[in-house]
Amino acid sequence: MYYRLLVPFWDFALGIEEKLSDIAETNIYRLYLNVGCFIPFKKDKLGSQCIIFRTKLHRKNSARSLDMKRYLVFWVEKCLYELNNPRMTFVFDSTDATYASMDIEQITFIIELFSSYYPWALGHVIVYNMPWILKTVWGGIQALIPAEGTDRFKFCNGNEIFAYIDHDCLPDFMGGSIPVPFRELTLEEIDAIPIDPEIVCYRFRPGERVIKRAESRICSTPAITKFYRDNFGLFRNGSRRVNGHEAMSIFLCRPEENLEFKKVGNVQTASFEITSCSPDGRPIVFKVKVNCLQGYTVKPFCGVLENGASMVVNVSKEMAYPVTNQDKLLVQAVVTDQLPSGQLVSEFWQKLKPDNIFQKKLRCCLANEYGLVTEETTYPPRSMTGLVGGQHTPAIRESTSELEKKVAELSARYRAQQIFNSVICFLLILNFAITFHSKMCNGIGSPRWYC
Length: 451
What we know:
Blueprint: H1 31-35, E1 38-43, E2 49-54, H2 65-82, E3 88-93, H3 104-117, E4 122-128, H4 135-143, E5 153-156, H5 187-192, E6 199-203, E7 209-213, H6 214-217, H7 222-232, E8 240-242, E9 245-247, E10 251-254, E11 258-264, E12 267-276, E13 284-290, E14 296-299, E15 302-305, E16 310-318, E17 328-335, H8 345-350, E18 358-366, H9 375-378, H10 393-441
Parallel strand pairs: 2-3, 3-4, 4-5, 11-18
Antiparallel strand pairs: 1-2, 6-7, 8-9, 10-12, 11-12, 12-16, 13-15, 13-17, 14-16, 17-18
Protein name: Motile sperm domain-containing protein 2
Domain MSP: 250-367
Domain CRAL-TRIO: 25-182
């Protein structure tokens, strides 16, 4: 199923205006789906959708930083709006993680993302099996969070995680009962992924380098495809063109992306047209959902369309609740053989399987008196509110920069300590060998041949 997730977003964490829009299954970096580093999974005990981040599989890569953020926003939008989850919980599995796995920029991005755009949606941040060498780093990350948000961070080891997530809702690599389809990668493969966004070099024999594409080494499998399709609706149906417009297989909307509201009296109004275009000619049943219920009225919010028929849906919002870019409409439709009556539409939707539902999102925006979309309402405000308020953002960036420097310094010290330990071990072994040799040569009896 093809869909367009309309997420207007600027990356303030890097201090640049990088707009993340039109994020969809078709244009996210597909290698992330195959690696198994960032995995949407089951729910925790409070009903929040869990995202499991396997820290040891991650390496900071500036060239792919934007792709990682797009990938994150894709799953946040999908889990909250398409899968109707009220909250999300991030689980950082830090088993066998090292300083090389830490990416302060991405963690800070998650904090600012939820504080600015989804302040209601963050459940817990669970750090699992944190090595002692990373305690300083996580302590610095907690310092970036205002006091009212620190209670969302939970640290646990081993079976302690079962206090937050049930055993049958965890993957096997975290002590759960659910096997995952992802292949366990070697350290060589993990370190090689960030070298180049498309091509990775592997050394098989001294002096020989064989070039392979990352996708061919860490490729998708039928099991991985089935995992995403059965649990999250990916890889289902493709899109097609109808009268020059891109259709969602069984229907299309006009406009296709932005639903522009105009001020009329004491309300803000907009409308869009939905057209049935099912490939097999059967009628469709549709409904419209709004992610922000305050002040919105949708007429009609549901209906039935014969193949080729169209219907105009009118949307209004009270002036007391201004239209913002965070407001979205989700249009869902399904083909049917038996047309339900008006009273049975709600029951009809309850009995449907998610695999049969096609959907599309429309982003709400406010047009000015000249019909142009205003910048201040179309795109996110520059201030940060919620868990990390706007007044905290400059301090967070400064603290993040300092923390990254400390992590780099600690990482360098850690590598130096590893080299020092290796040298000490070598010298101890050498000293033992020399001592053993001396005792054997100076012992009772004739000298041995190696003395």
